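so the lab meeting is tmrw and i was supposed to have these ready like two days ago... anyway. pasting both below. for each one the top line is the aa sequence and the line under it is the structure tokens. i havent really looked at them closely yet so no promises
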Amino acid sequence: MADQSEWETKAANLLKAELKRKGVTYAQLAELIGDKEVNIRNKLSRGKFSAAYLMQCADAIGLKELRL
């Protein structure tokens, strides 16, 4: 089974891929969710964010389905 850091990497890569698919930049996402671009960059580079944050980002970019 994957350890914690592997899961964090998978979660970050999943969100990055969906942003790319939707053509949304970190700056645009920051505006959509009311955060700062630097905070988003840090969260995604570390993979340290909650499931609620993932859902907030997914909703903001109009993502209705998430395939694991």
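ok protien two:
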Amino acid sequence: MIQSKTFEIKRRFICDTIVIGGGTTGIAAAIASARNGACTMLIENCGHLGGNATVVPSWMGFHAPDGSQVVKGIALELLTELQAIGGATPLYPDPICGSMAAINTHWLKIVADKKIRNSGVQLLLHTRFVGVEKDGREISGVYLWGGEGLIYVDCKFVIDCTDTGVVALESGEKMIRGRVSDGKVQVSSWTFEIGNVDFTELAAYFTEYPDDLRPFPLKDAAAHVRTVLAQDAFVMGAFARLVSRAKKDGMLLPRNNMPGVIFPAAGKFVTVASRVENVNPSDSLAYTQAESTGIAQVEIWLNFLKKYVPGFRNCTLSDTYGSIGIRETNHMAGAYTLTADDLLCGRRFDDVIALGGYHLDIHSPDHDGIETRFPAIYMIPYRALLPLNTGNLLVAGRAISATHEAQASTRVIPISMAEGEAAGTAAALCAAAGVSAGNVSMEELQRKLSGAGALINHQQ
């Protein structure tokens, strides 16, 4: 049996910073690195940029529930550009999510590609990360696999913006899957879109049953309903009473409500109601089964909507997006592990590089509901992006050093983009100064971030 095979390097590149993962976090990291003078590459496995943001058409987390803005910088810049061409709604206040803007995912792909190319970043699509070449504590090069075969990139700094932290893992960093106690992760969801919704009928239902719009009690649910019915889009966690009725009738539904976003004028509903446990992108067989399980639930929910929910009697399935949406995989064991307590008490850090205020939104692996807690406006320390064993690597996005509970807040798109912007800025500074990630000038990094419009102090 053949144990290994040697591949010839077909192409070589040289850069200062290489960013692995072209989701929104990687986009922010690459742009920040390039803007700060580094020769930068961005690597993405798909044929377009955007990652999970192209399968979940809403961005939440720019604001805390009290209305305080916690994220600006490149994340807000990208949103503003989308809004200018009709590719995104205004940011609407939300009593649970803080704020929400609905995104046209097709425009996101176009604008993100243009923005990356205008920044001078070398982009490689349809290219997979394979491994690293390491010299002591430093990564000297990165191996990729593209259409031509094996690619080698000689680099000074690497930023891991992947869903699983695979670059950190391959570099020798310890990764923790899900909860420390049992390794369980938040459930995943196949996002799908329902069209031909009779919004007038649905609005009448919510007016009669305002408590059925959201999964958590609101102080004045009726007033909330009146407000959101006038918006271009709004968040729901709806139909709990109807789901309960359907389950009593024998219908096997995977959740106790339907979370998602409704678009009144377009008569469409985008939902993440499917529920798939223990999804592991690092296991091809398990990952394939998860995709099959998730898409099979689409038909179940469609039948429920048609039979039980006002306004959906003649609805249609209009989009199933690209792949299952994953909320959690691995967490790096980094220089500092961000905890739920850090978020809930608003712990302050001298090495703050980003803020957050999104609720701890845990799509539980234990039951069919959602667990939530509301934090103070919190700080994310640079050390949560900093590995222990690799001097020229930073991690941003889902795989930062945070617990299962803390990551349930930091994982959302605007906050992850703020982390990416910080990582890209730090990488460029370190590459220019010839120092490791742990020796970056924190004063200069924070000054650069603030000067670029990023928020690192909620009183800014």
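from a quick look at the 2nd one: The chain has twelve helices and 23 strands. The first strand starts at residue 9 and ends at 20. will dig more after coffe
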